[in-house]
Amino acid sequence: MTIFLYDQTFEGLLTAVFDAYSRKSFPDSIFKTGEPLPLFYDEVYTVVTDYEKAERVWKLLVRKLSKGALTTLTYSWLSEAPDIAMLLFRYIRKITDAPRSIETNFADPDILAVTKLGKKVADERYRILQFMRFQKTSEGIYYGAMEPLYDVFPLTINHFRDRFADQKWLIYDVKRKYGYYYDGENVDEITFSNPLQTHLLTGKLDDSLLDKDEKLFQTLWKSYFKSICIKERLNPVKHKKDMPVRYWKYLTEKN
Length: 255
What we know:
By secondary structure, this protein is an alpha/beta fold. It has helices at residues 10-23, 51-64, 67-77, 84-97, 109-131, 157-163, 198-202, 214-227, 236-242; strands spanning 2-6, 29-32, 43-46, 135-136, 142-146, 169-173, 178-182, 187-190.
């Protein structure tokens, strides 16, 4: 059994594809560097991420796949599925070796699995755009936190930057302990030296950190939400389907 080790980056995975073809030796399993290995194997090859190699593989995929399939490929990577590296390696290899497009050959289990994962990530991105609730801080920064199933925050940046172009904002992934800050011009990835602060765990800012009018706006929003609810038409099952319970702790109207 041949094992590839990589740095758990997408560029590292693309480099692994390039190296496998160069070596004419393809992995049976892919592990991240430092991860415990199985007891029995024949060879371990350490992939050194090379952006030029990764770029060459990506350009090949651009030629072989439609824009939609490329999006599905990158979205599925953000699913963080336990076997995603090996799944995408097999997917890319099949796409590379096929004489014609096979991106819609859903009889192939790898093509189907990547497509399903891509759709799940796309759905999660849409839910984050729907349910993100911002709180205005005393410094005039709009803070929003959530705990998405998949690592979809990178897919939301363009939306928030366009939607709130004239406002400073910070979105924070509670699960992965990182976020993005927009200063009115640029978006930067950020982490905090003390990720155990209460608002970084719960997504709720302490009253002392809020803008003086924020509590009023939250109260008005809750009142509006209650006023538009028609008790006779309440459908709890549909409500939970449209607005999954796992998001409720981050929604102003639910607290």
